[in-house]
Amino acid sequence: MADMNEISIETRALDLFYGDFQALTDINLSIPARQVTALIGPSGCGKSTLLRVFNRMNDLIDGVRVRGQVIIGGQDIFAPGADLLSLRERVGMVFQRPNPFPLSIYENIVFGLAVHRLAAKKECSAIVEQSLRSVLLWDDLKDRLHHSALKLSLEQQQRLCIARVLPLKPQILLMDEPCSALDPMATMHIEELMQKLKKDYTIVIVTHNMQQAARASDRTGFLYLGKLIEFDETAKIFTKPAQAMTENYISGRFG
Fold first, then answer.
1. Residue 85 is part of which domain span?
2. What total of structural domains would you count in the chain?
3. Looking at residue 198, which CATH number applies to its domain?
4. Which alpha helices (DSSP H) does the chain contain, by range?
5. Is the pLDDT of residue 121 over 80?
6. Largest Cα–Cα separation, the chain
7. Looking at the domain assignment, is residue 144 inside a domain?
């Protein structure tokens, strides 16, 4: 396990409001580098809102206000003048349903490089190969790079969406219910992929699937009504939680 002294994301007294509604309240959290951290809790508890704080995607919603600090790479990402483009290079996002662009497999992977102007054209082929190897797709797709990404299976599309953020060399991968559209076998493959990727990346996942959190994560945070009730090693959360509310949720008494 990564040293807890090596913190990848830290929140300090974080509050978030949608207009008059307070969606997150006093979130204090330290997410270690190169581990998988799961965020669990019932629907509407703030899991996805918290995840989207880390790359400031909530900024796209009218009426959002944030108080407190979120420290990534030693900098408060909400400080005046914070570089959003740089943040979104460092913090990649994978969504609930695979969302490949209606382009070729190759074009999907180099898309971000083109937007951010990060690579010369002659470097792209090597980057595409490296990215697809990272998500264990190269052998399957190397002869189909110029075929439409929309023709891939759902699992392959989700792997491609992960591969698509890797050329930007992020430090952090955010995954919002990354397996909810997948069958159990494909889910197992994505969970195995997370274990491989965490050697190089900090991974934060939101999941409704508590078995997935228990299997795939090193640390788990339980949220309820916008508050972080408990955050600890996953084994402790699932076998000896400190809070009765956590135990009640995990045991299925509510949620």
1. 7-98+171-250
2. 1
3. 3.40.50.300
4. 47-53, 84-90, 105-116, 121-134, 138-141, 154-165, 184-197, 210-216, 234-239, 244-250
5. no
6. 57
7. no
